[in-house]
Amino acid sequence: MKAVWKGATVAESDDTVVVEGNHYFPLSSVRKDLLRPSSKQTSCAWKGQASYYSLEVDGQVNEDAAWFYREPKPEAAQISGRVAFWKGVKVTD
Q: Which end of the chain is more exposed for a tag (fewer CB within 10 A), N or C?
C-alpha cells in the first residue's frame, strides 16, 4: 500500500492494518521528513486518544492529515506504532 499527497509518497508498506476502512501504516514506513507536529487530539471510545501530524510537501501544509494512537486501548492494540491518513491523502495498492 502507498499513501500519496501532492505527488509525494508519504508512506509505503505491504504491512498495513485496516481498521474502520483506514489503512494504518507502520511508523517506520512513513517519511518523517514530511510530518509536522500538531496539537490536535481526539478521542475514540474503543481505540483511545488520537494524536495528529500535519503533512508538508513543497511548502504546502495539510493540517492534521495523519493520526495515530500513542497508547491505544487493548481492543485496538493492532494499531499501536501505526499511522493512518485522510484529508486528501490517497491510499492505493
A: C
Q: What is the DSSP annotation of the chain? A: -EEEETTEEEEE-S--EEETTEEEEEGGGB-GGGEEEEEEEEEETTTEEEEEEEEEETTEEEEEEEEEESS--GGGGGGTTEEEE-TT-EEE-
The closest alpha carbon to 66, from 7, 29, 15, 93, belongs to 29
Reading the block at residue 19, the C-alpha cell is 481498521
Task: Work out whether the CA dihedral 88, 23, 31, 48 comes out positive or negative.
Answer: positive
Find the distance separating the first CA and the last CA of the chain, reported in whole Å. Answer: 4
- pLDDT at residue 77, as a whole number: 98
Contacts of 74 (CB under 8 A, 6+ apart): none
